[in-house]
Fold each of these.
Amino acid sequence: MRNKNVWLVTLGILLIIGVGIFSFQYENPDSDTADPEEGLQNESQEETNIEKQKNPNGNEHFSVQHTEYPGEVTPDFSPEELIEPPSGNWLTNGGNIYNGRYSPLSKIDTSNVSDLKAEWITSMGTGLKFKYSGEATPLVYDGVMFNVTGENHVAAIDAKTGEFIWEYKPKLPEGLDTLCCGWVNRGVALGDGKVFVGLLDARLVALDQKTGEVLWETVVDEWEKGYTITSAPLFYDGKVYTGIAGGEYGIRGYVAAYDANIGRQVWRTYTLPEPGAKGSETWPEDSENWLTGGAPVWQTPAVDPELGLIYFATGNTAPDLDGSNRKGDNLYTDSVMALNADTGDYEWHFQEVHHDIWDYDPANPVVLYDVKMNGETKKGIAQAGKTGWVYLLDRTNGKPLVGIEEKPVPQNKNQKTSPTQPFPIGDSFVPQEITEEDIERDLPKEFNGKFGNIFTPFWDEPVTVKPSPQGGANWPPSAYNPNTELFYVLGNDNYFSYAHYAEDEENKFEVGKEWLGSIWQPVEKSPSRGTVTAIDIKTNKIVWQNDWDTIAYSGILTTAGNLIFTGHNDGRIIAYDATNGEKVWQFKTDAGANAPPITYKVDGKQYISIFSAGNSLAGTQHGDKIYTFSLEGKYGSLEDIPEEDITVSPAKEEMDFNQGKQEDKNEVSVDEGLKVYENNCLSCHGAEGAGGHNGPNLQDLNMNKEQIIQQIKNGGGNMPGFEDGLTEEEIEAVTEYIRSLSEEEG
Ligand code: HEC
């Protein structure tokens, strides 16, 4: 009856503050247990949270210091310092608080980049199991690098040598299972002598920058209800900002700001308006959608200190794929938003997809840029959508800078589709339709079904469309280079089918359970492709584009050396000429290069670095290493690197305490199979074999036991083979588990 309590609490708040004054609700996170009036008062909120710091929820963690901290610790950065392009350090997830991932460093340039060699390689020692993904952008300050693995293990590393300084690893709760899309962490934040990390179980933790000791720990939310943290927090103006993930679990999204000193919540702004507030008219009246409608914020925000605004994009509507019970535009889902950074007050929003039924949420971090257009300097904000368009807006007011047209789109009564959708002027960076030629070339002869384009609705009859819910652009961050005035974006291009459940039963909201509302799946035996695209920021037109034969799932760094760097699923880190896209350098690492590269400088030397650790959704080879390159590096290829030259975490053994230790039991049981499934298959195939993000439904399999075993061993299509990764017993166990899914279905 949680919902009812929140209703009562909110009713209390509304009566006291008066309806309609605030467009968003400020609420004590504990409000469903608190007295209604307490929820309003800041003081009582302080007490609750300070209590939690003293006793950080009884959570165990591991932390160890190996060597003395060699550098200075971070100050309480001024806005001016955080707005500077990163010319030595890499201070925030996006390089600076504009999120542009542009560095003015130019020692490494198009003329000498071919001499770039690996200088040091460091093995983090965690996050190797298949369910983990390495998506972190490392940060660097005064010669020290900070990195985090999918297992939430944070390390401070000497940025010149790759040696470990300290390590921290939290114990994550047993049974944590509300992660739709792999166990990931996109990075830490730095400031005021602290390292901030958001944990998968929705805790926010501050570590001492010198020692890795826990300074404070705050429970942001309850993972059991589907709230998790995968994004890097942002440090700005003495506060730590974090959003929340969980759009697939029927959550109520928000961004919250915490006092960087003590972890007390300063404000929290929900992205779903309460009944009566501005935006609530875009939902059915008298519904509880405002409590379960999604709109998570799962990327690191950007800030414009001059305007005093914080910017981010919101995730999908819940349930993702069924619009039948949520007539209207469903604000503020799928939107770029601006709030007052001090107070969290709403400033403006721009919705990219009205009444989303395809999971086309803007997953890519927003990027701020300043550019002269028609003789006038414009303050821009760019967001690369899953739709395949870049949305270019004026960040002072949210109005289109290049032009975005509302156009009529195909309708479906059952889905209560929006009559129009926004179509940005300019080029899309991935295909948005399926042509006869595509069908002929890409799809198996036996595949027959209805095809559609972007915004084609679906109901009972399956429809296959492009782009897929993977995008377009997904989380892998884009970059903007002020010299080329080009915006660089990675795109995914694959075939996905959607259909509404025949049974209404499947469409019920249950707290903490995945809630898609319909079925989606990739088309079996169809190719996945990717694009690396440079877009003219003034016209939104493509200047150059490189096509890949896999999804592009890493992130982009651009530099004043006229370069861009990005990672490839096959393990390569690749450099292109920023002006024309010509490939100028590559190095193959030992795992999927599925995280964004960075650059930094220590003692006058420029380095390029990438955390190459593989990805469960992309199905790439897993690893745990940071590769750092320089013009004075020694190793031209992986084969040149002797095992003993790789720095290994000295605490590797001690840290191996999180769930999922390999147990060697002979007994084969469905329970064990479930464990293997959760660790290796769930992110793609979904809970209980349905609703996964990159694999077909496994509940009505037409395969015998031997065929299933062969599929698991060899993979195929976009599924990796597990012959080397799993034992015979584990393969047997997971096969039994999968067979049990179809039996239950009858
Ligand atoms: C990276 C995503 C991914 C992961 C991880 C993954 N799969 Fe798959 N799986 C797929 C895709 C995509 C297909 C369809 C393959 C094709 O195109 O033919 C598939 C197909 C299958 C099939 C055949 C389904 C059919 O109807 O033909 C089975 C069975 C299966 N997977 C089981 C598993 C098991 C068990 C695991 C874990 C050990 C696993 N998968 C891990 C993506 C994945």
Amino acid sequence: MESSKPKHVALDFDNTLAYFEGGREGIFDLFITLNIPRDVVEVAYKATKRSGGFNIDKLVDEIEKILKKSIDEVKVKVLFSKWLERSLKLYPDTEDLVANLKKKGGSFSIVSVGDQSYQEQKIKLLGLNPVSINIVPTVGDKPTILQKLVLETGRPIIYIDDKATELDSIRKCLNEEDVQTIRIIRDDSPYKEEKSKYKHKEITNLGEVKF
Ligand SMILES: [Mg+2]
């Protein structure tokens, strides 16, 4: 009988592998020292999310649009880099998953929604070394990438995400023989209350994933 044990795990990034200590809202406080009100930053941040995902250049542009004047971009970037390095952390069980995969000869990739350069910056900062990094612009774009990964690595593969609707969009397009969907329950996930339409295996620790 053909072995059906997965050897490849594809994972979402934010609140699946990594999180911001103190929350992603920490970014809003960076601008207080520049006398830019928090509510201005929040509105600007939401605008970047609507236009292909957040990055710091877009945030500066949006803030300048609202304030109708230029701000100290160099200073903003220094503050932002320091905040990122200080706050972005791997969940402890991410390292357990990576170690388990290594022991069993498996591999992992990252499939994330957002701005290409910012997502890559975060992944590199944490020293993760996936076989591939796939950044898609919007929610619901992941099935095409997963189909490609199945063809490259052999089926089945596992896909893990904290967002129920992303898992649903994958199950809608790809069957269980190709992609096994797993929801990681994270207390600090912004999608903790999302309900899923399809049934997905649920775990609270990436170390629980079996190969
Ligand atoms: Mg996520």
